[in-house]
Specification:
Layout lengths: L2 E3 L4 H6 L5 E6 L4 H16 L5 E6 L4 H6 L7 E6 L2 E7 L4 H11 L1
Parallel strand pairs: 1-3, 2-3
Antiparallel strand pairs: 2-4, 4-5
Length: 105
């Protein structure tokens, strides 16, 4: 199951992670976000133990959202060793996200 990232746990769970991390920036009202949501859940199961995968609600967590300049959602940021190594904005097929995650593992 995908984790829930927040302003308060982002540093610990994402930036300090010893595994690659994929963060799905989303909101309840966002149609394309609802399309990507199930894919994020599937990837969380498939990459369990190899990568950390979770979601951050942009409406509830404005600090991290502003810090990373998120203006369009869904936005998926890929982190390794606390640094952004890749990003994907907009709804894309699972294969695209799988490829980006596999490159980091």
């Amino acid at each position: 199951m995908a984790l829930t990232f927040t302003d308060s746990n982002f540093k610990e769970m994402v930036l300090d992670s010893d595994k690659p991390v994929m963060v799905d920036f989303w909101a309840e009202w966002c149609g394309p976000c609802r399309m990507v949501g199930p894919v994020v859940e599937e990837l969380a199961k498939e990459f369990d133990g190899k990568a950390v995968i979770g979601k951050l609600n942009v409406d509830e967590n404005p600090n991290v959202t502003m810090e990373y300049g998120i203006r369009s959602i869904p936005a998926l940021l890929f982190f390794k060793n606390g640094e952004i190594v890749d990003r994907q904005v907009g709804a894309v097929p699972k294969s695209v996200l799988n490829e980006k995650l596999t490159a980091q593992v």
